[in-house]
Amino acid sequence: MSQNARKALPRNLGTPTDTPPSTLLVNSKGLNPSPKRAVRDPKTGRAVQERNSYAVSVWKRVKAKLEGRDIDPNRRMSVTEQVDVVIKEATSMENLAQLYEGWTAWV
Hints:
Helix content is about 35%, strand content about 15%. The protein is α+β, with helices and mostly antiparallel strands.
């Protein structure tokens, strides 16, 4: 990902408890650990980390998949049910029909 694309991502402040620790935004020099530039919470004086909201959304999607909540977030599926769903999706004629023809899947 280019530096310009990274700058275009939306930024959210705060660190909720379900946010992964590795979602710091990266600037052109790497991680920005400088306390001089850190945004401080006016009430507590603690540094507030900037979050990459796209990375957080991807992390939440992976977490939901691992917990078996990918199809229905209110219901946890067993491993057997998850495997059945994945096999059905992989062998569905609708999904197979959308293959990119340049992959020559029929060969």
